[in-house]
């Protein structure tokens, strides 16, 4: 295959894909298709990159690398969140090498060009007369915050539908007060596979009955229409029906929106959001379903609010519960390497060891992520073997 696949070749491969089936193997394993993924998907759409809780103070930053792009996401002195290309305007050097940290100013280590956290060039030594610092600010990247979540878009003209998406999802997210939460912990897991199976696993969920830790608090009837529920699952379905009726009554009494909204393949910013009950105690992702943190995220009168699930294409999903929230950011590192960054958020005043135990808080999704990583690796390994046989 050519170093960079021509657009016509890509279009041909897409057109020959049987409806309802996966893309052909090269899309999951070849370098040229990874490059196209970055340019055609990740450089053109809104991406989730961090929770605001990861940037609690002015000068706090995270960096995100997507193919040849590196982006600084930073809290400015006015408490806003900004994003800039991580490229010095002098010699094009990368400025910040760490994944996260805190700065007073943003200083390039090459020639000490110094920028404020608002991106303005503050200092550039030994410049010619007439040099205009205002012409050499850091290049901005579009950044938005929605109810405590930070999104960026690398495109010069971002998808115009994000305002509408934000308006629709914010009422679901805002009650959890995420902008005032804190990070309990964050785990980076590198899956040895392409980013597409990672996102497909989350979206199609055929394998969701596999992870035993996750199944303890999920009703095992996901995807079944009532008439298709097998006899063995009928008791679980009836238990779900009772829990769902109770949950809807609670949601309505508290003014919490819960109806599913889905627009995955009909718009630029594909998303799905819904609030629904959990099994057992119905409070959290724990072995018995009870709250993992006794200090709730917000002033909820009950911890039994189930889960508010949110999926955003192309790179994120989220779970909001009464006691904590979990964010999942998917960052492609290469054709066969994908970073899954999972962040657990709790009330700002929650105390580890007193209000929550970290192992209990993270057990379900830590185990589920690790199991999913195995599935992704198996899938991509098989595709590579298939291609090698053909070659």
From TrEMBL:
Gene3D superfamilies: Naphthalene 1,2-dioxygenase Alpha Subunit, Chain A, domain 1 (3.90.380.10), Rieske [2Fe-2S] iron-sulphur domain (2.102.10.10). CDD domains: Rieske_RO_Alpha_N. Keywords: 2Fe-2S, Dioxygenase, Iron, Iron-sulfur, Metal-binding, Oxidoreductase. PROSITE patterns: RIESKE. It comes from the Bacteria. InterPro entries: Rieske_2Fe-2S, Rieske_2Fe-2S_sf, Ring_hydroxy_dOase_asu_C_dom, Rng_hydr_dOase-A. It is an enzyme of class 1 (oxidoreductase). This is Aromatic ring-hydroxylating dioxygenase subunit alpha. It comes from Streptomyces bullii.
